[in-house]
Amino acid sequence: MRKPAIIMLSDAPYEMAGKIAALTGGAVHGLRKRVGKAEFSFDETGPYVRNLFENGTPVIGVMSCGALIRLLAPSLSDKHSEPPVLAVAEDGSSVVPLLGGHRGANDLARQIAGMLGSHAAVTTAGDLRFGVALDAPPEGYKLVNPENAKHVMARLLAGESAVLKGEADWLSNSGLPLSHDGALELIVSDRARQSSFQSLHYAPATLAMGIGCERGAEASEAIALAEAALRDNGLEPKALACIFSIDLKADETALH
Length: 256
What we know:
This protein is α/β, with parallel strands linked by helices. Helices cover 29% and strands 21% of the residues. The radius of gyration is 22 Å and the shape is globular.
């Protein structure tokens, strides 16, 4: 995730904005005519904030939810590609993840609220009921079939249970309704498999591939070789954690 932009429209929350920037690794952006100190300054709030958002930069607005929603409304389109957006009350009393809850906003809200000693207003159903977001697995895992996440989560929220096939502490230690005879499946495996509508397949980053090539080899040839090696051995490409070769090949375009 990119480093966030902390947006200020006045000097009042400057100290708090600085703390948020330090915590998140982000930078403070301020409205030039009202903010005396900021790493970046802007003259027109709407176009500036929308440009950050449309370029994938997480936005943390130290302002009301309504103000931030109105600023970004013209740019809202695809929730699957939108970066995290949070509104922080000027007095720090509430931190509200508005967009991208499962792409980092909820976690950011909890971190910021923890630092400020305030409240993270997380509203996504899966987080509240089960303490986990099935469409946003933690680092080290990738969801192979994200198109099934909404359907599976809806059925879990409706009271159905799932069987866990494989091992993953973030699933087994969650509040998910797991049972040995669940109608739904949560699969943790680095093996390739056919996807079914009632299952979610999580690929753990467990595979390492060693590969070499002739000097000046075509990238397409190296990619085809890697894909064939995974396919022929029944392995899931999303479980690939890293590629290795000898030092002599470190500058080969095909391997990059």
